[in-house]
Design goal:
single chain; mainly alpha; Hypothetical protein af1432; 2 domains; 19 helices
């Protein structure tokens, strides 16, 4: 059994679930959470939802599923070294993108614009909505009834307006408190995986070059080390070795800096972690600056590359026109949504819009493209 630090989350001291259940026979509460997430339909759909590139553009690019697995691996390794709860860390990491739309961030931005007059759309809130309400797997409750600690980690960001409506799980955003250490760790592991793997994917599709990346300190430093150690290495092996070392550099820095901060803080339990004035887990100043530089580089040179922007425009059009078509006549939604949509339409336009947003957000990239064709191309079968 893993030895846990006193300030980590302990399964036996969990704040519990929304609906009371008996304790699992041979698993901890957080293991049960992880297993429920893996067996959810929303988790399976992540296989065909993209990070940056649309799903059909290539088999080797990251998807939301591979990204979530990579986040879990990074976070779990750090959790073990710092004596945090590995099972909880893994559960949060695997669930953090369950509410993401098709077409990556461009899909989220488009759906948020559609929902502007109906409460907006944010993928962290949608991830919580998926596990609390939308998954329908159990006879005794809606959703998959995760523990408070896992739900806390899923909800990384939240406005005070939305926090008020969420009850206890949103209270920390009102009071300015911190989440548990496992939640903080999953958030940082997400950034490590996201930035470095986008470097890999961007190079793979030739939207960015090694020469451009050498403008950033984080890449240049590791690339120079690789060149000195392996002067004959080139191509994909050189890139893979450099990206691997970038990830390791960030992980080691996070472990060492966070360990020192935990020691200096004097925190002794999770409630003191939550009461601390700022997150306890963070990179050193120099590495944080280098990470920010890389993130800004990727925005300028990859996410705003004309080929990515063209696809983003197409994706936004697909989301926007489907949303409007369903709002104009909810009867063209799939049959299983008719009763709920009819009820929502009678209740309020905002409630109907939320049902439509749930439907669109749950789509994979390829299903969204197919559904768009069914709606708007006369030759397509309905």
């Amino acid at each position: 059994m893993q030895k846990l630090a006193p300030y980590s989350s302990h399964s036996e001291h969990s704040k519990g679930r929304q609906y009371a259940e008996g304790s699992p026979s041979y698993r901890s509460e957080f293991q049960r959470d992880r297993d429920r997430i893996i067996h959810s339909a929303a988790f399976r759909r992540l296989e065909y939802k993209t990070q940056v590139f649309v799903n059909h553009e290539g088999d080797l690019f990251r998807t939301r599923l591979t990204h979530s697995i990579e986040v879990a691996q990074i976070a779990r390794s750090i959790a073990r070294e710092l004596d945090f709860n590995e099972d909880l860390t893994e559960a949060i990491s695997l669930a953090h993108d369950l509410g993401h739309t098709p077409f990556g961030h461009s899909g989220q931005d488009a759906l948020n614009a559609c929902m502007k007059d109906y409460g907006g759309f944010e993928h962290n809130l949608q991830s919580l909505r998926v596990v609390d309400q939308l998954e329908q797997k159990y006879a005794e409750f809606p959703g998959i009834n995760l523990t408070y600690e896992t739900r806390e980690g899923i909800l990384k960001h939240c406005s005070k307006k939305n926090a008020i409506e969420l009850g206890e799980i949103g209270q920390r955003f009102i009071e300015g408190r911190q989440p548990g250490l496992e939640a903080q760790l999953a958030n940082l592991a997400d950034s490590i995986a996201y930035n470095n793997h986008d470097v890999d994917d961007g190079l793979r599709c030739s939207l960015i070059t090694v020469e451009q990346l050498r403008e950033t300190r984080l890449f240049a430093m590791q690339c120079e080390t690789v060149s000195k150690l392996y002067p004959q290495l080139e191509g994909r092996r050189m890139i893979n070795e450099t990206v691997r070392r970038m990830i390791n550099h960030l992980v080691v820095d996070l472990i060492e800096n966070s360990r020192a901060r935990l020691l200096d803080s004097g925190v002794r339990d999770i409630e003191q972690v939550r009461d601390y004035t700022e997150p306890l887990l963070m990179h050193s100043d120099d590495v944080a600056r280098d990470s920010l530089e890389l993130k800004q580089f990727l925005r300028r040179n990859l996410y705003e590359h004309y080929r990515v922007l063209r696809m983003s425009k197409k994706a936004a059009r697909v989301i926007r026109e489907m949303f409007q078509a369903f709002m104009d006549d909810y009867r063209i939604l799939p049959t299983q949504y008719h009763a709920l949509s009819s009820e929502m339409a009678g209740d309020s336009e905002s409630a109907l819009a939320r049902v439509i947003a749930d439907y669109i957000a749950g789509m994979t990239d390829r299903f969204a493209i197919t559904e768009y064709r069914r709606l708007f191309e006369p030759g397509e079968l309905t």
